[in-house]
Amino acid sequence: LTWFAHDLHSLSQIERLYDFFVASHPLMSLYVSAAVLCYFRQPILAAGGDYSVVHGLMQSLPSDLPIDRLILDAYTTFQRAPPPSVIAAASLDRERAFTPDSTWRVFPPGPVDSPLPHPDMGRLIAWKRPPAK
């Protein structure tokens, strides 16, 4: 809902993530969420299924969270497992759960075999904020 704005400590991190979300697939925030979970894999597993520990970990993201790495991981996962392949692998009643106009099925409208969802995505992923003066 807030695209991590309440959980990140740095405005530059929030801006970087928002730039990425605005320029990419509408479901990219789910892929970034998965990248964050993978980044915290060891502490999550160490929690032994204690939801309160996992919740506390996810509510207090460190200020040095590697946003660029998470964006790259999310985009790589998106390339390897785009929404249509996630649907195909889901064990849900796909016809009922995902309507024909669902964002999971079609985005952008038309051909979905483009290597980049946005013409500037390559530049956006590689972009580095200039150092503050």
Inertia-based shape: globular
Taken as a percent bin, the fraction of beta residues is: under 5%
Counted by DSSP, the helix tally is: 8
Which oligomeric form is depicted?
A: single chain
Q: List the helices and strands in order.
A: HHHHHHHH
The average pLDDT score comes to 77
Largest sheet: none
In terms of structural class, how would the helical and strand content be classed?
mainly alpha
Tally of extended strands? Answer: 0
Assign a percent range to the helix content.
40-55%
Given as residue ranges, the uncertain stretches (5+ residues, pLDDT < 50) are 111-116
- CA gyration radius, whole angstroms: 16 Å
How far apart the termini lie comes to 33 Å
Polypeptide structure, described:
It is a single chain. This protein is mainly alpha-helical and 133 residues long. The chain has helices at residues 11-22, 28-39, 41-46, 51-59, 67-80, 83-89, 94-97, 121-126. The model is unreliable at 111-116 (pLDDT under 50).
